[in-house]
Amino acid sequence: DSTAQALAADSSAGSGKKYLSQPLIKEIYTADPSAHVFNGRIYIYPSHDIETGMPENDNGDHFAMRDYHILSMDSVGGKVTDHGVALDVKDVPWAGRQMWAPDAAFKNGKYYFYFPAKDKQDVFRIGVATSTSPTGPFKAEPKPIAGSFSIDPVVFEDTDGTSYMYVGGIWGGQLQRWKTGKYDASVKPEPAPNELALGPKVAKMSKDMLSFAEPVKEVKILDENGKPLLSGDNKRRFFEGAWMHKYQDKYYLTYSTGDTHLLVYATATSPYGPFTYKGVIMNPVEGWTTHHSIIEKDGKWYIFYHDTQLSGKTWLRNVKVTELKRTPDGGFETINP
Ligand code: FUB
């Protein structure tokens, strides 16, 4: 099958390393792939990693990206097209620096591109830009989404047509600084180990997809006994990089555990949660960050993710895809990338 072929075709000859799959493109560095199927074609909305010489630190200053390129392909394994610059930080009136993990949605006959960036005060906000084409170029709204903060926006459309944005990341993603509802730069990177873990945030989108229809709410993630996960439970608690999909009437919240480098999942019967932690989808990749998205195409499920195979540097990543196999109990086979 395609996984076995990818392993067999591993191009890292001589390094002694085996990779489950190969980078989708090698001409530029890409990360944080949010994949969607629009009109039967796969579009990937990634970060565009670049070398800027910024020092590596827990704030993620070394992720100093300045623009976005969109990739597309007919099917997994098909030719990948890089559509060039879709949005540049210089064309976003409110943004200062760090164009991090984006996402996109199609509604009202338009494509909406959602992206986090630090504003001129160095506070992460979520911006939105629109286009008539899934590959852009996108025109940014003059201001970030009112009431938005932190990073890694993901927009999920439920089967009734309602769209929700999930957002958040701790440490460099600044989620912990919003605990009281107001920005406070003096807060530690995360709560003490015996305190409740921070969850991602969710808000229903307004019909025009340019604003929130309600204030953001915390998403609770519980353990198998119905108790909220604690901050010290860092193999299971939320860190960043959420994704949402629905399967057989259940909502699947998938996310990165950050400093333990796992992609994990939790399920719920409502898009607002509470979610119950279930298990690991993917073991750590090469590089510090792990970030993914999940789509269904032609009857198969796929996970898009990144590692640092091309560069060996945590801030110069490359996006990949592999099949995600579901198990009869509603879970997944854990992937060893
Ligand atoms: O790409 C910058 C940041 O790294 C993303 O926003 C996080 O999810 C992590 O992948």
TrEMBL record:
SUPFAM superfamilies: Arabinanase/levansucrase/invertase. GO terms for biological process: xylan catabolic process. Keywords: Carbohydrate metabolism, Glycosidase, Hydrolase, Polysaccharide degradation, Signal, Xylan degradation. GO terms for molecular function: hydrolase activity, hydrolyzing O-glycosyl compounds. The record marks D152 as: Important for catalytic activity, responsible for pKa modulation of the active site Glu and correct orientation of both the proton donor and substrate. Belongs to the glycosyl hydrolase 43 family. This is GH43 family beta-xylosidase. It comes from Hymenobacter luteus.
